[in-house]
Write a structure and sequence with these properties.
Oligomer: heterodimer
Strand order of the largest sheet of chain A: 1-2-5-4-3-12
Radius of gyration of chain B: 16 Å
Largest sheet of chain A: 6 strands, antiparallel, barrel
Strand content of chain A: 25-35%
Largest sheet of chain B: none
Structural class of chain B: mainly alpha
Helix content of chain A: 25-40%
Number of helices of chain A: 5
Order of helices and strands of chain A: HHHHHEEEEEEEEEEEE
Distance between the termini of chain A: 79 Å
Radius of gyration of chain A: 25 Å
Structural class of chain A: alpha+beta
Number of strands of chain B: 0
Order of helices and strands of chain B: HHHHHH
Shape of chain A: globular
Number of helices of chain B: 6
């Protein structure tokens, strides 16, 4: 009896009650009970996060520029030579423009100006799943909603909107292991499902065995599934993985966007009327 | 350190981790200074301060992370309680080696608990444990090295500042509580 009393001492009971509380708390959270609280908390933190992110970005950019001063001088010299060359090339621009339009049509690439975009500043990253989610300073008040495509200012897909608050939103990056989108290779038109690996590269699965996908090919969104619009660049095939015993091929893809260098993104709200 | 200072330290650590370190360590993983701060506080502050700091750290990480709300609260409570329990005998005296050992232990606990709880959450969502396990195997060693490096820098800076301000005991453990 005494032994029992010892085991169930006040401390143990306290700890048990506390653990039950925490597990109930987590269970309720799993049912989405604390979503409102989480959104409010995030909205309160985001202004400070934005200041920290933008200040540190400016400092690191400036520091990098200072440390690469010699490189900048060399680059400047090379650029001056290139400017002279470009003066000549400029005259050929109208021809190149026409050719570009023809290529875009043949590759079925989506021109950026067909879409309705929202410009958003990157204000931070998920502290736990680092490099798999990022925060932007635009939310539902700017017309952002879940599932909208997030692209770089150059038009390269980086992910999709995952969670939206009034003035902020969280984007799930392609690198996240739970993110998957339909893609197609630009030259051989091989289709597949691009998935994040949680690391730097991505993987395309479900590529038909008879497809001729090769390393070096550009990967673009296929538009299937209705998640992302068709024709936006995603990455380049690094390696094709194929085995006779597998029903499908897979391919390692290097993303074209450097997610750690992003200071701003575009969010596709829809097509322009 | 008192509770308001600890809360402020945690807030700054969270902001640095979410908004600054991705610029300084752009390789997919960065030091977990929130964890380092909680471990440091658990060894040097009063119980009340440690509990408040751990709850606040867990809460902030839960708010900002994409994981299920409550997971990091639970992890930080476990870690702080462990160090509060262990500090009376294992971490009674604090020097660089002891602090590094504590951070190493804290990071290992953090990574294992994180893998189990996140893996469990994914499992409930019919996802795989594979990514949690992979993170544990491949990313945890890097995080341990970063955390130890940050701790060593922090310890040396504390020493320097304490000498400047003529304080002989930069890190004072609480043996009697």
């Amino acid at each position: 009896m005494r032994k029992m009393q010892k085991i169930f001492s006040k401390k143990v009971i306290k700890a048990a009650v506390f653990l039950v509380f925490i597990f109930s708390f987590t269970f309720l959270s799993f049912r989405g009970f604390f979503k409102g609280f989480k959104n409010t908390g995030a909205s309160l933190l985001f202004p400070a996060q934005k200041v920290f992110y933008q200040t540190s970005k400016r400092i690191t950019d400036y520091t990098r520029a200072v440390f690469s001063f010699n490189d900048i001088l060399k680059e400047n010299f090379v650029l001056k030579e290139q400017v002279d060359k470009l003066q000549v090339d400029l005259s050929k621009l109208s021809e190149i423009k026409r050719e570009n339009e023809a290529l875009r049509e043949s590759l079925k690439l989506a021109p950026k100006d067909e879409f309705d975009f929202v410009f958003a500043n990157v204000i931070g990253y998920d502290p736990v799943n680092f490099g798999q989610y990022l925060f932007v300073d635009r939310g539902s008040s700017a017309g952002i909603s879940n599932g909208q495509a997030v692209i770089t200012t150059e038009g390269i897909v980086v992910g999709k909107i995952f969670e939206v608050q009034d003035n902020t939103a969280k984007a799930q990056l392609l690198s996240d292991s739970n993110c998957s989108i339909n893609v197609i290779s630009q030259e051989t038109r091989s289709t597949g499902i691009l998935k994040g690996t949680g690391a730097d590269n991505l993987i395309i699965e479900m590529i038909p065995q008879d497809s001729a996908i090769t390393a070096g090919e550009n990967i673009i969104t296929s538009g299937l599934g209705g998640v992302l619009p068709k024709g936006f660049l995603v990455g380049v095939v690094e390696r094709v993985i194929s085995s006779d015993v597998d029903a499908y091929k897979s391919a390692r893809v290097k993303p074209l966007a450097d997610i750690y260098e992003l200071s701003a993104v575009l969010i596709i709200k829809g097509f322009k009327n | 350190m008192n509770a308001p200072s600890a809360v402020f330290l945690i807030l700054i650590a969270v902001l640095l981790q979410t908004a600054v370190f991705n610029n300084l360590w752009p390789w997919g993983i960065s030091p977990n200074i929130v964890l380092v701060s909680v471990v440091y506080l658990a060894l040097t502050s009063k119980r009340r301060t440690v509990v408040i700091a751990a709850l606040f750290a867990g809460l902030l990480l839960d708010i900002l992370s994409s994981s299920i709300f409550g997971i990091y609260l639970l992890i930080f409570i476990f870690i702080s309680e462990f160090f509060l329990f262990a500090r009376t005998f294992i971490f009674a005296k604090i020097n660089l080696i002891i602090l590094l050992f504590a951070v190493l232990l804290g990071t290992v606990f953090y990574e294992i608990l994180s893998a189990i709880l996140n893996g469990l959450a994914f499992f409930l969502e019919a996802q795989s444990f594979a990514y949690s396990i992979r993170d544990l195997i491949f990313l945890a060693p890097k995080e341990i090295i970063y955390n130890l490096a940050i701790t060593a820098i922090f310890f040396i800076l504390t020493k320097i500042f304490s000498r400047i301000f003529r304080n002989d005991k930069p890190l004072t453990p609480l043996i009697k509580r």
